[in-house]
Amino acid sequence: MYTCESISHLLATCKTLASFKQIQAYAYKSNIHSDPFVAGKFILHCAVAISDAFHHALRLFLDVPAPDVFMCNAIIRGLSESETPQNSISMYSKLRREVGFRPDSFTFAFLLKGVANYRCLRDGVQLHCQAVKHGLDGHLFVGTTTVSMYGECMCAGYARKVFDEMFGPNVVAWNALVTACFRSNDLMALEAVFGEMPFKNVTSCNVMLAGYMKAGETESATDLFSEMDVKDAVSWSSMVGGFAHNGCFTEAFGVFRGSVRSGIGANEVSLTGVLSACAQAGAFEFGRIVHGLVEKSGLNWIITVNNALIDTYARCGNVGMSRLVFDSMPDKSSVVSWTSMITGLAMHGCGKEALQLFHQMESHGVKPDGVTFVSILYACSHGGFIEQGSTYFSNMIEIYGVEPSVEHYGCMVDLYGRSGQLEKAFDFVTKMPFSPTDIIWRILLGACSIHGNVKLAEHVKGSLALVDPDNSGDGVLLSNIYATAGKWRDAAGVRRSMENQQIKKDPGWSTIEIDKVLYSFVAGDKRDKITEKAHEKLDEIMLRVRVEGGYMPEVASVLHDIQEEEKEDAVTRHSEKLALAFGLARSREGRTIRIMKNLRVCRDCHSVMKLVSKLYRVQIVLRDRSRFHTFDSGFCSCRDYW
DNA sequence: GTAGGGTTAG
């Protein structure tokens, strides 16, 4: 015979509908199935602890002639934790209407949490009113959940008002308020509340840390972190992720090592953070070490970690490793995994494979989102698939219901502009439902540069000057367009006006990783032994590409109105060439040379790299601002289309 | 018998 207690005990480990039905059968045999306690437990378990079993929970619920509050709450909770939490509210109204359901504090806790999940302020306010109507808004748990809900809806102000009405807020309530300010991106309010708190525990400090990091205030975060006498795994991982988020990868590596040394160890958040730092720095070897740690720590089943690995390998120039990680993932339900893989392929010039993967994703039943379409359109524009690109763009809206953002429009402008259809590209800009941003104009300017359209370039530069007058890259690009067209005086004019306005050119830099050490180079500088060595080797390389490869310098890439010979020297000394020379001098034979550049690679460097890959029989992988170039046997993976 | 607070990926 089974009792209520033994049924509860059985349910604790029951995870499938089949085993659940068995337990139900025991309850029938023992004739305790209609006991309200047992029936309630059954409904709750089925509604929240077994996946895809809500329909069964609902059937059980409907079989009960007079369901009690507990049962109603179980049904509402099941819906509020589902994919469609909105349904919990309609269920609530239905129960109120049809069975005279009287909600309690639990009801509102579940409902409000559901709203927090889909962040609908209107529904949130309505529930808040209902809670007031039932006299439950003063309940500590309900109040705390309301504060969290308003935070998720980005309304720190409302959260604060609710909090101020609360009677005797405890630590949890305070922390909910702090988090609400964090979620609303309200750093001022966050700092104020943090300062006001009568008790600070680690949790609230962690929120403050994350808040500083989100706002880019890495120094304040560092100060707070060093003042904290108790630091837990969340504190450490927030620092790692925060530094990575702000592009401070050296610091991210440092804190990550610190977390391991302090005995806290790596967790999935610090691992994704440090991987993101690797991705930005292009630190392939270090990324591999972190991958080893992932395997060793047994965290290799976590989806976010795998997604970070896919992205890191792709950004470090090894999309093959990304593919291995992707293929090894047993759970491919996350759209992020697919999108990362698609982006990786597209970055590496494998546009066709990227589109194929998109179709595989669809047959897997994973729904694409806005980011997926950015990478799809990117793949099309970089692969020169103009027709397909326009089709995807219209399908995105009509079939998938994804609202196009400025980024999507940017991809389309790039798609047409890059392929030489400058008028169509310009037309797209004027017909956009947003006013064009600096980025949009810059894409068009880039297209003018590729296709040598001076007239449109001048017009675009004029619009750019209105939106973002201080950007050095734009002046450089326009000046290069003039120089390519042989209009040296105009090129010099742009440069002079940049000097007058004190606009400084972003210095180009490149990094190369050899034996796990990262070396960086800036154009033309001779500072130390390393740079000296690079210059020496570069002289030898340039001579060889000239004599054996028939290389002719392409001087249009420098903007100076200087003598031809000097121009040649300035191109010769670009940072990516220095990194390449150093790599050739120091890498072991047969090794792939991996270089990262902060700006886009210039035409001259591009042709030198092709020649070097042939003459020196090396593979060179170069990551520039927008994509990867893999040079092998005299050819580049971008097929000179970038 | 049910419930509230912290960092994370494209």
From TrEMBL:
Repeat region (PPR), residues: 201-235, 334-368
InterPro entries: DYW_dom, E_motif, PPR_At4g14850-like_plant, PPR_rpt, TPR-like_helical_dom_sf
Name of the protein: DYW domain-containing protein
UniProt superkingdom: Eukaryota
Gene3D superfamilies on file: Tetratricopeptide repeat domain
GO function term, MF aspect, one: zinc ion binding
GO BP terms in the entry: RNA modification
UniProt record similarity statement: Belongs to the PPR family. PCMP-H subfamily.
UniProt keyword Manganese, yes or no: no
Domain DYW, chain residue ranges per copy: 550-642
NCBIfam families associated with the record: PPR
Keyword terms: Repeat
Organism from which the protein derives: Kalanchoe fedtschenkoi
Keyword presence, Protein transport: no
Segments crossing the lipid bilayer: none
Pfam family membership, one: PPR
